[in-house]
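To whoever is on call:

I kicked off a structure prediction for a single chain this morning and the downstream step that reads the tokens threw a length-mismatch warning. I double-checked the sequence; it's 269 residues and nothing unusual in it as far as I can see. Pasting both halves so you can look.
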Amino acid sequence: MSDVVLYEVADRVATITLNRPDARNALSSEVLTLLPDFARQAEASDDVDVVILTGADPAFCAGLDLKELGSTGGNLRGAGAVGEDRPDLGTVEGRPGPWPSIGKPVIGAVNGVAVTGGFELALACDFLIASERARFADTHARIGVQPGWGLTVLLPQAVGIRRARELSLTGNFLDAETALAWGLVNHVVAHDDLLPTARQLAADIATNDQVGARRILRTYAENEFSYRGEGWRTESAAARAWLKSGGGSPAEVEARRQAVMARGREQTT
């Protein structure tokens, strides 16, 4: 089995780790196949009450693998594809993206940069703990790809519509302390304390009555989708239309890739 995504269980907590550190844990087609498989494995396991999602240092997730996106584009149209046409969109079970809806709490332990699709992956977690090294950015507009995994719904929910617009339209990076002040993350901790803090919170959750905890978590999700379900459908339709029109083609992405990566290095060092 490939080791680009790691899965381990201890003390009723499953830790899922994106493990392509040399590629900043970018989402290749292989990762996009394994990630939902491990999420569903945790969901089905009687030995798991809580899931922690993190990345192998130095990054959390740099988003879709731009090398693959700029060559075949297979990771845009593969598992968890952007802008999928699904009849259940706008429901609890119908959330699009690389992380499926599961009934157990998911803590995002953001250890480094979370960019574009990686940002959406973080937003799909129930709440976030950030290392002091965490950085967040939405570079969809710079790459030339429309969001399709819920960013235009989840980001304004977290930080407010005006801040969300600023992040999406500038592509600028948000540091960990500002992310805390804006309400994007729950805690910022020293880098070495990130996983211990996430595991302590997971242990606190695991001591609850699990039937009750999961029913409360689902109620939050049902309430979210009752008044934001149309937003999910609108975003997905926009992403499908963009792809159909030829937007985000591999050639266009490849032409922008180096500039996007260079700008990211400037803003995070």
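Update from on-call: the warning came from a stale cache, not from the record. Cleared it. Sanity check on the structure: The mean pLDDT is 90.
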